[in-house]
Amino acid sequence: MNIYNLTREEMEEYFVSHGSRKFHADQLFSWLYEKRISSVSEITNIKKELLNQIVSDYSFSKLKLVQVQRDVDVCKYLFELDDHEHIEAVLMMHDYGNSVCISSQVGCNMGCKFCESGRRKKVRNLEVFEMVTQLLMIEEDLDSRVSHVVVMGIGEPFDNYDNLVKFLRIINHPKGLAIGARHITVSTCGIVPKILEFSRFPLQINLAISLHAPNDKLRNQIMPVNKAYPLKELISALEVYLKNTNRRITFEYIMLAGVNDSCECAKELVQLVGHLNCYVNLIPYNETNNLDFKRSNTVQIMKFYDILKKNRLNVTIRREFGSKISAACGQLRSKKEEL
Ligand code: SAH
């Protein structure tokens, strides 16, 4: 077990179960997340005996940073895990703060046809500490705070749900990383039962849905998850989510040339989501060497945009970071492992 796996409540339970007092969780959280110790020997206000017990029960190790690619406003980090697997995280420096995109699994089982990580199957879920320490290590490298987190890196977060929610609780906790819930976004390809469960999750985290197609026929072709949870079920789950949370959702829509970028698709999209409280984020596809999909040209993206806009959808086109440094989902990991 790793100490960065523990939520604040779990840490309190640990101390109580060892005949000790809850307030030690306060102290330990502060060493880990405020003072950012690099070794247990720095802890001064917990009794030696208790500290020895903690050290024999938990590892304090983080990840191994094996590569950083830097550009003006973006850094891409490649981490190695204890079992020698690799994951990526991306830091984007916006004018409003530092935003980090983290991975939730090693590989991914969703099999989206356009996605580099989907091409390569899931190896395993990430542990809570493997998600938390991606952020700690990036803040250390940056020597500054991360203000926004998106769970949009490698993996399907709702396929690692229990670890995901613990991670969210730790990074949101005021004595943890203290990242405001409204500054955290979880992105899913549309796992309906988990969307429903998440609609009852008490923190005000943003939800993004990778939609990418406006009808079942097309979505089945590019996103196998649609066969398990077709659009009708997905949209009704989102209606429940919106009713329970009173929030807005974001739809991500990658623009793939000749696949989903026609004006007909734009009109169908208006029909599909026009009644929901949502944003649509159009994403220029990041081409990868291993897959045949091409990005839509700018004229086509603008035509698509205009149709949504005319029909009063809230639509934006995603700003691009790091196309020079293989920032497309999963490319750095593939390069490292398929040399
Ligand atoms: N599994 C989750 C989160 C990880 S993928 C999900 O599906 O939402 C994060 C986003 O990147 C998804 O919208 C995914 O469809 C998109 N994506 C994958 N490969 C991409 C590429 N090459 N260019 C642009 N977006 C990509």
Task: Summarize the structure in words.
The chain has about 350 residues and is of the alpha/beta class. It has 12 helices and 12 strands. Strand 11 (about 280-285), helix 11 (about 300-310) and strand 12 (about 315) form a beta-alpha-beta unit. Helix 1 packs across helix 2. The longest helix has 15 residues, at about 130-140. The mean pLDDT is about 95. Bound molecules: S-adenosyl-L-homocysteine (SAH). S-adenosyl-L-homocysteine binds near residues 112, 254, 288 and 328.
**Total of DSSP H or I helical runs spanning 4+ residues:** 12
- Kindly report how far apart the N and C termini lie: 32 Å
Q: How are the strands of the largest sheet arranged?
A: 1-2-3-4-7-8-9-10-11-12
Low-confidence stretches: none
Tell me roughly what share of residues is in helical segments.
25-40%
Overall morphology:
globular
The assigned structural class equals alpha/beta
| Main sheet specs | 10 strands, mixed
Strand content: 15-25%
Rg, rounded, reads 21 Å
Q: What is the overall pLDDT average?
A: 94
- The sequence of SSEs as H and E is HHHEEEEEEHEHEHEHHHEHEHEH
The hetero compounds bound to this protein are: S-adenosyl-L-homocysteine
Q: Could you give the count of β-strands?
A: 12
Can you give keywords for this protein?
339 residues; alpha/beta; ten-stranded mixed sheet; two-stranded antiparallel sheet; 36% helix; binds S-adenosyl-L-homocysteine
Quick description:
The protein has 339 residues and is an alpha/beta fold. The chain has helices at 8-17, 23-34, 48-57, 128-142, 161-172, 192-198, 216-222, 225-228, 231-245, 263-273, 298-310, 331-337, and strands spanning 64-70, 74-80, 86-94, 97-101, 105-106, 124-125, 148-151, 184-188, 206-210, 249-255, 278-284, 314-317. The chain is built from 12 helices and 12 strands.
